[in-house]
Specification:
By secondary structure, this protein is of the alpha/beta class. The protein has two domains: about 200 residues, Nitrogenase molybdenum iron protein domain (Rossmann fold), CATH 3.40.50.1980; about 150 residues, Rossmann fold. A five-stranded mixed β-sheet has the order 1-2-3-4-5, covered by helices on one side.
Length: about 375
């Protein structure tokens, strides 16, 4: 598989899974001392028990049900309580971290904890300049991915924590292997959440491991306020432009579900997702022929793969010439900020800055509400 094909497939994968559904967390906290506020995210809870904190991650991969993982956080200067015997205890604050998804970088950056990053998967696809510099200076290493994970390198780096993610249940085999080596592994399931504020709220999850609960809560409160203020700008608009999203791969067009994170963003920006009547939160396959027919109703086309120019887009499939968005040049892609290796800041910083993504979409759909031409993640395809 060529590097270009690999990256395109990876891009499609993340575009799809980031539209996957979240799971509803239980409201039964009778055995908890004090649950810290989590307003939007369904994939984790945090409870404070005085001399330790407990984090529960709920259904952290696609189609999982009734699965949970518990992590017990104890400050480095405290003794481990006897009640935690046999539990997975993580000493905090963590100082040496490995991230197995570049989307985790956004959380570390927001918490000013990039210096704690010692390795990651896919270093060549990183967008963050600080991490790029660290990779170039060999203070941050690439540990590989999937079957190519370099366990020897991971062990040599002596991480306090490895932040992983799960696409399916097979991730447990990988996690158990790392735990057998004496390493702490946590699952970050932010990509499964059903809206952007829920995804961003996972900063509270990450912040807990750095003993930055308050900093994380304050950061999220600022983002939440910004997001709501921007949403309010278009709350009373009468016109709701129809929006087409995505790009096909080998005649299969993975379309975001009508109740997905992307559909929610479009709605909050005063638009109407082309498949808004769909009741799924998961992505689904649509034939290119059906998209060609439906595209006649769309005013804008966004998030169209990795393309940078109109000619590049048309070279993908000649049938795009009949799309009205092509004729009107009403195409905007979310790849304004791309690193030298192809890493897209939309999937890094964008995870913790949904307010900036929403701001871009408002500029596109309703320039009468925001006439600024300065975009954060989007650019016009011409």
């Amino acid at each position: 598989m060529s590097r270009i094909t690999f990256f395109f497939m990876a891009f499609l994968f993340w575009g799809v899974v980031c539209c996957a559904p979240g799971k509803k967390k239980s409201n039964d906290h009778s055995n908890e001392d004090r649950n810290l506020p989590v307003s939007y995210a369904n994939g984790f809870t945090i409870s404070d028990h005085g001399n330790y904190r407990k984090i529960t991650v709920i259904d952290p991969w696609q189609q999982s049900s009734g699965i949970s993982f518990e992590y017990y956080l104890v400050d480095r200067d405290r003794d481990i309580p006897a009640v935690l015997a046999g539990k997975e205890v993580i000493r905090t604050p963590v100082r040496r971290v490995i991230c197995l998804s570049t989307s985790h970088i956004g959380f570390l950056s927001a918490l000013h904890e990039i210096p704690s990053l010692k390795a990651l998967s896919g270093a060549g696809f990183v967008s963050d300049p600080e991490v790029q510099k660290a990779v170039a200076s060999k203070t941050v290493f690439d540990v590989g991915y999937d079957q190519g994970i370099n366990y020897e390198l991971i062990l040599s780096l002596k991480p306090d924590l490895i932040m992983a993610y799960g696409v399916g249940g097979e991730v447990t085999g990988f996690i158990n292997k790392l735990r057998d080596l004496g390493l702490n592994v946590i699952l970050n399931g932010e990509y499964l959440e059903e809206n952007s504020l829920a995804k961003a709220e996972w900063i509270k999850f990450v912040g807990a491991f750095y003993n930055k609960d308050q900093e994380a809560a304050d950061y999220f409160s600022r983002i939440e306020k910004n997001y709501k203020d921007i949403k309010q700008k278009v709350a009373a608009v009468k016109n709701h432009p129809v929006v087409l999203t995505g790009l096909p791969y080998k005649d299969a067009w993975w379309m975001a579900g009508g109740h997905s994170n992307l559909a929610s963003l479009i709605s909050d920006a005063g638009g109407e997702f082309l498949w808004h009547e769909n009741t799924s939160r998961e992505a689904f396959v649509v034939s290119l022929e059906e998209v060609v027919i439906r595209s006649a109703k769309a005013d804008f086309w966004i998030n169209c793969g990795t393309v940078n120019t109109l000619n590049e887009l048309l070279s993908t499939d000649s049938r795009f010439t009949v799309f009205p968005q092509v004729r009107k040049k009403a195409i905007f892609n979310n790849n304004l900020q791309v690193g030298p290796g192809g890493g897209n800041d939309y999937w890094e910083r964008g995870v913790v800055r949904p307010d900036l993504i929403l701001s871009d979409l408002v500029k596109i759909f309703h320039p009468e509400c925001d006439s600024s031409k300065v975009f954060n993640f989007y650019k016009k395809i011409e």
